[in-house]
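We store chain and fold; thus.
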Amino acid sequence: MNQIKEIVLFPFDNYNIPFRHGLQLELIKAKRYDGNPVIVPSKPNGADSSAIAYYGTVIEIDGNLHLWYLGKGNAENSQLRICYAISKDGFHWKKPELGLVEYNGNKCNNLVDLDWPGKAMSCCVLYEPDDTDRRFKMFCEIESEAIRNQGCIAFSNDGLRWKQSPLNPVTHIRIEPTGLVKRKGCYYIVGQNAGIDRAFQKRVLIVSASYDFEHWTSAVAMGFRRDDLPPRPVILDYQKGKQVHLGAGLWDRGNTLIGLYGQWNAGTETGDRRELRMDIGLLISNDALHYYEPIPDFKIIDTSEEGWSEKNPYGDPPRFAQGQGIVNLGDKTITYYSIWGRGGDNSIKAVYWSRDRLGYFSPSRNPIEGQTWIDSVKPHFISAPIKIGQYGADIFVNASGLSEHSKITVELLNEKFERLEGYTTSEFVQLKDNSGHRLPIKWRQRDFIYPTTDPIRVRVNWDGLRLEDARVYAVYVVNKDY
C-alpha cells in the first residue's frame, strides 16, 4: 500500500473497490468523433502518403498532445516509419515539418530521426522527464530478414532525434506490443505473442519486464487470454476463435492501469479472415502483469458503427487496432484507433467519453451483473485501504443523476470498517450540484481528510425514493503532499 498523488476509485476496478452491496456495474461505449478521421495521408509525395496506422502513442506534455504513429510514403522501397504530429485539443492535429530526415528529395516532412533496420510494426513511447539524457524511450516491433518481429529500443531527449541501442534486438521472443509502462522501478512491455512460433496456440496478452529498459526477460507473464483450454473443447488453428490482438494499450492512473485490447473474434469453422471481426475491449490491471475484463467481451469501442469495407466485394467485418494513448482533456476522455487489414491503412480516428465516465455503479431493481438490495441495508460500496499523506487529502466524486430524491453520501472508515468520527453520513454536507466530473466532498467540521498514519477506506452510500437515478463514475482521493 504505497502513497501516491491521486488515488482513483473506478467502479470497474474490483481491486480498489472490492466490496459492494445492491449495485450494478454498467460500462459505457465510446462515442465516435463527428469530424473523423483526425489523421489522414499527406500530399502525394509525403512520408505517410501511402499508408497510415496508429499502433503508436499519444502523450500529453505541457498542454500539448504528442503523437508518434506509423506512416509509409510512395517512394520506391518505402516502408513503415515513425511519424510525428501534435495537437492542442486531441481532435485537430498538425504534422510539423521537422526538417530532420530527407524523403523524396527534401526534408519537409514529419519523420522523426530514427532509421530502424527494418519495417516498424508498432511504436510504444514512454516519457520520463527526470531522466535527463533519456527522457523519451521507445520500444518498437521491427520486421526484417534479420529481425523477426522482435523488440528494438531507442532513446531521445526531445522525442524527435533518436539513438538506437547497440543491443537491438533486445528480445529473443517475437512480440507485437501496444502497451508500455513503468511501475515501481520496473518497465513492462505488453503485447501479443507473434510469428509462427507464437506458442500458447492462440494470440494472448504477454508481458516482458526490464529494470534498465535494455535487458528484457525472455520468459513472459501470460497476463490475459480468451481462448479455451482443456477440459473445454479446444480449437487448435491459431486463425480461429476468440483471441487477444496486440496485447493492450495502457492508461496509467497511478493506483490502477486501464487497458484497451483488440478482441480478435474469428470464425470457428474456417481460418478465413473475411469472417474476422475486431472490436476493442476493456482490461484492468493493478500490477502490470495480470489483467481481467470487468465485463467479459464488452465492446468499449464498438465496430458496429464503422460500416463494412467497400473495397472487398465479400464485405469484410470492420477490425480495429488500438495503440497507447488515452487522455483527459477538459470534459472529455479521448483515445484513438485505426482500421486493421487491407483497405484500412489510410487514417487514424478518435473516440471519446465524458471525462472518466467509462463505467458506473448504480442500484438496479432488476440486476444482471450486480446485486439487488434490502431496505434495511441501502446500496453502497467500500474501497480498499488508502494511505493518506502527512498533509491530508482532498476527496472528490464524479457523479450524475443526483437530486433530492436520489442522493449519495460519502463517509470514511478505518481499515477494520469502523466509522471515523467527523466523517460519518450524519456529518456529510449534501452535494449542491446534480452532476459533475469532480464534485468536492466535505463534512460539517472537515473540509478535507485530515492527516492520519492509519489507512482509511471510502464508503459511498445511495439513498432516496429514486436512488437508482444516481450514478457514480469515480472517486478521487488527492494527497496534499504533492
